[in-house]
Amino acid sequence: MNTEAKEATVARVVDAETKLAATVDELRAAGVRYVSGSIVDTGSINRLKSVPLDRLASLATNGIGFSYCWATALTNDHFTETDVLGGPSGDMRMIADLDSLVQMGATPQWAWVALDQYLQDGSVAPWCQRSFAKRLVGQAAERGYSLRMTYEFEWFVGRVAGDGMLGACHLGPGYSSNAWALVHPYALDLLDALAAERVDVECFHPEYSFGQMEVSTTPTDPVRAADQHVLFRHTARTVAAFHDYRCSFSPVVLPSGLGNGFHLHFSLWNEAGDNLFAGGDGPAGLTREGESFLAGVLAELPALVALACATTPSYERLKPQNWSGAYRCWGQENREAALRFIPGMVGTRAQTANTEFKVVDGSGHPYLVVGAVIAAGLHGLEKGSRLPQPVAIDPHTMTPEERAAEGISQLPSSLREAAEALAGSAVLRAAMGDVLFDAMVAVRRAESEADAGRPLDELVAEQLWRF
Description:
A hairpin with a 5-residue loop joins β1 (34-40) and β2 (46-52). Helix content is 39%, strand content 20%. The chain contains 15 helices and 16 strands. The protein has two domains: 3-125, Glutamine synthetase, N-terminal domain (Ubiquitin-like (UB roll), Roll); 136-463, 2-Layer Sandwich (Creatine Kinase, Chain A, domain 2). The chain has helices at residues 3-29, 56-61, 129-142, 177-196, 222-242, 288-299, 301-308, 314-317, 349-352, 366-383, 400-405, 415-423, 426-432, 434-451, 456-463, and strands spanning 34-40, 46-52, 64-67, 91-96, 102-103, 110-118, 145-160, 166-168, 201-206, 212-217, 246-248, 264-270, 327-332, 337-342, 354-357, 409-410. By secondary structure, the chain is of the alpha+beta class. The strands form two sheets. Strands 7, 8, 9, 10, 11, 12, 13, 14, 15 and 16 form a ten-stranded mixed sheet that branches.
């Protein structure tokens, strides 16, 4: 173990022991008996291991073993490989980050905690996605910036009949009291569970597609936003089981439906506590720094798609005129733009102005998406990038020549295209590091090859309960 890794390990163990002094007793008194810890792998699947509460101290210091192969895992439980990853050899340690520890609201005998991936020499595993997000938050802080982020959660709730047919929990109309009357018992238990887990919900409603629901949460720091992404899905599934429902966060549940988005909202703040997406003299009220950050994200959108849309069915959702943001452009309150700028209500803009990254769906990687958005934005800040003119109309109604003149292009329309766009991003390679970057490119390519030529209905059915 090198000196730096040894010092970091000692500091982590001391910190964990300090935090654990009272935590275990408090959890036991609250009825907790077991702790589930989880990572999100390269295929965007939440993988977990559970330990008795008395083993929490070990989980936070020594961790628990997991094969290196999960660094190149596909959604179908198969694996690919890179020049440095693959094969049966190698074991990492998954170590609990106690800052994320929470008693589960729906199953209070259980607690949940996020795990970071470490090598056995005490250093952070170079493929650890959550550590990548932490690192980028730190890089922003070193430059005097912080970010507030949150995901919107769209998902399908329904029952599976004996013949395998899906029965949606509601049949619309979208946002209607008709639908609410059918789903409110499940929603009530879910919202109560989230409140017990300290997940601050801003809004709930039945969504547009059959069986679709949506919850929006309050913006928070990026790593916590990604943790809440994992915790929310775990909780929604658990509560659904009590109501004899199942949840699917897959980007396409019904081939005729609109699909599930997990739109990421983000805003940039300085050390003085100013929202740099408001109060400026730039386009739509952006400050110069806010504009450069947003321009950096806009420039990297094709590569970001590979992290935000992880499956072949994702690209059935990511189509023009589907309100999914299929074109690389930005616009004020334009729901067909990949980056929808939201200035907020007059009088509240300093607190609420933000941008919605609409492309993200339910298969997107929660930690990689937030880290990569920060990386792209910081690159824009370093370059002093400027935004093109905002787009106020549906870009699909423009001619190809008009779009080309405005610098508007369609985002990747297949997983293969997205994988190659990611492979060509020097910005994300530099931010992620070669090991993690190459693993993500390899996984996306392997997923694309495995699904090539297969009917959409077959893929949707196969992937329905993976997410």
